[in-house]
Design goal:
Elements (H helix, E strand, L loop, with lengths): L1 E2 L11 H5 L2 H7 L7 E9 L5 H13 L5 E7 L2 E9 L2 H16 L4 E6 L3 E2 L6 H6 L4
Parallel strand pairs: 1-5
Antiparallel strand pairs: 2-4, 2-5, 2-6, 3-4
Amino acid sequence: MWLLKQPDIVSESSQANKIMKKRIRKKKHVREYREWGVPVAIKRKREDAFDSFLDDFIEGAIEGNKCSFGGGGHKNELEGVIELGRIPEEIELRLKGVHSWLENREDIEKYIIGNHIDLWHGSFKEIDELGKRL
């Protein structure tokens, strides 16, 4: 299991964002309206019952921690992005819940959770490269 270093998620992106009106900040998804997520790649020990595993993952790890998930997979691999929300304290709690769920599953061979990314303006290179490291 890899849990990569997390950046400071409450830092300001630019001086211009400090003087932007609240309505514009919300439309542009900046400052307090940023939406944070992490890329994830999961490799299972088995190739059968993928649909059952996916249902459990969505219900237990994702919806159980009030997150959203975008991605896909087949047989024994799953890759995607977990949307964690906007409030820094909740983001860490949700990520710990997902991490705990993954650790407690016996059918998972290994998984990688990437760095926090701004889901509207972040660099998405890591998402494409994460699955190759499994």
